[in-house]
Structure formats: structure tokens, C-alpha cells
């Protein structure tokens, strides 16, 4: 063996002893979006309104974008090691009766609540109990009335406010996804009892109205995406 061959063998031997630095794969990420509503009162709208001996104030409720994850599953082809592990751990189950599924946890960024929402405060200066029964709530977006369920303001129609006290309730409107962006809208309370006689019979009802500007902004959050694979029965 000549000197050149000896040097090559020695070099290869040394090279085999040098550890190869592994480059870690960058973590996978995904960006989730939340459509956040911006609601501001128009200049002519007074938050607190008084009619008779009933004072009612209205203010936009607080929204928040909530972080979460959603599982997204898809069937993938198993590797040799995955098939071998299945056969060893499930000797009595044919592989045809199972599938190899990858579950990916995708980040979500969800608005809560997902409907138009307002805090409504009622101050009762009547000598009698105030009852919200019979009150109707209407939303009008861009000149068009928007239908909502009476359940969205059931707390108002069920409210009972003793004399010279106040109560706050939260009422809801249409889903944020159904509201056009960059618009104005009105909230109307119809047939609110503002006066009663000594026997408690209703003697006068009035309507209340507020007007707002509505816009939205996109809020984003980028988080890590993780996946894991498992065998599941077909």
C-alpha cells in the first residue's frame, strides 16, 4: 500500500469521527385573523337619555379576540416504521381496517362575543316597579332594518327594576359577519313604559334611539403549528 492510499484511509477514518452538525428545522407557524368591530357614537347621539321618569343609557359592550386551536385531520401515507409499529402492537388487526391520520393544530383567533353587543342601563325613578316586558329592540344598518331574534334581548324584556334603583343588562344584535363594514346604524327601543298610574297600569310609552358609526379592523396573531400522526380505526 502506497503512502497516498494510507493518507486517504487515515483522512476518512478521522472524518468519520467528526460529528455532523444537524440543522434544526424551523418551527412551522400560521397566522390567524380576528375581525374586530369599532363602534363609536355619532355626535348627535347622547348615551344617556331620559323620558318621563326612566333613564336609559347605552354603550358598546367590550369585545376581545380569543386565542385557540382547531384540529385539522387528514389521512396520510404511513412510513415503513409506522406500519411496522402497527403490526407489532396490533397483531390481530389487519392494517386495512385502520388508517394513518395526521392531526394538525391550527391556531385560531376568534371574536367574543361574535354578535353586536351593548350594555344597557335602566334607572327607574317611577314610584312603581319598571318592567321591560313588551319592549321591542330594532337594529337598522345603512337604512335597512335587520331582523334579530327576541332571544337576543330577552334579558331586557324580562327585567324588573324596583323603584329608585338601576339595573344593567347586555343585549345582542346581528352576527358580526353579517354586518356591512364602514356603515352607520341605529338601535331603537320601542314601547318602553315611562309612566304608570297609582294602580300600576301603564299610562305612557316612549321610544329611545341611538346612532353609531361601525367599522372593523383585522387583528392578527402568529403562532406555532404542531402536528402528530396516529392510527385510527376505519
Task: Write up this protein.
The structure is a single chain. With 234 residues, this protein is mainly beta. The chain has one domain. 12% of the residues lie in helices and 56% in strands. The protein has 3 helices and 14 strands. The protein has helices at residues 3-17, 80-89, 154-157, and strands at 29-41, 48-51, 54-60, 64-75, 98-112, 115-124, 130-131, 136-141, 144-146, 160-161, 165-175, 183-196, 202-224, 226-233. The strands form 4 sheets. It has a 5-stranded antiparallel sheet with strand order 1-13-12-8-9, with no helix packed on it. A 4-stranded antiparallel sheet has the order 2-3-6-11. Strands 4-5-14 form a 3-stranded antiparallel sheet, with no helix packed on it. The longest helix is centred in the N-terminal third of the chain and has 15 residues, at 3-17. The radius of gyration is 32 Å and the shape is elongated. The two termini are 63 Å apart. The model is unreliable at 3-22 (pLDDT under 50).
**Residues in helices, as a percent range:** 10-25%
The pLDDT mean sits at 89
Q: What spatial order of strands do you see in the largest sheet?
A: 1-13-12-8-9
Percent of residues in beta strands? over 45%
Helix/strand order: HEEEEHEEEEEHEEEEE
Radius of gyration equals 32 Å
- Measure the end-to-end span: 63 Å
Total of domains: 1
Amino acid at each position: 500500500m502506497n503512502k497516498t492510499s494510507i493518507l486517504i484511509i487515515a483522512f476518512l477514518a478521522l472524518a468519520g469521527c467528526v460529528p455532523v452538525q444537524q440543522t434544526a428545522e424551523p418551527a412551522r407557524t400560521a397566522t390567524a385573523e380576528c375581525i374586530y368591530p369599532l363602534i363609536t357614537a355619532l355626535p348627535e347621539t347622547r348615551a344617556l337619555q331620559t323620558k318621563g321618569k326612566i333613564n336609559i343609557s347605552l354603550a358598546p359592550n367590550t369585545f376581545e379576540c380569543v386565542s385557540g386551536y382547531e384540529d385539522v385531520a387528514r389521512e396520510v401515507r404511513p412510513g415503513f416504521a409506522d406500519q411496522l409499529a402497527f403490526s407489532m402492537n396490533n397483531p390481530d388487526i389487519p392494517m386495512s381496517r385502520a388508517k394513518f391520520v395526521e392531526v394538525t393544530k391550527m391556531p385560531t383567533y376568534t371574536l367574543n362575543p361574535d354578535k353586536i353587543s351593548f350594555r344597557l342601563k335602566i334607572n327607574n325613578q317611577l314610584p312603581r316597579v319598571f318592567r321591560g316586558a313588551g319592549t321591542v329592540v330594532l337594529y337598522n344598518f345603512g337604512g335597512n332594518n335587520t331582523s334579530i331574534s327576541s332571544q337576543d334581548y330577552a334579558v331586557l324584556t324580562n327585567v324588573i327594576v324596583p323603584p329608585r334603583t338601576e339595573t344593567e343588562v347586555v343585549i345582542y344584535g346581528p352576527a358580526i359577519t353579517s354586518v356591512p363594514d364602514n356603515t352607520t346604524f341605529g338601535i331603537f327601543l320601542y314601547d318602553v313604559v315611562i309612566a304608570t298610574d297609582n294602580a300600576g297600569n301603564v299610562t305612557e310609552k316612549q321610544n329611545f334611539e341611538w346612532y353609531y358609526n361601525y367599522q372593523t379592523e383585522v387583528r392578527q396573531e402568529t403562532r406555532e403549528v404542531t402536528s402528530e400522526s396516529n392510527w385510527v380505526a376505519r
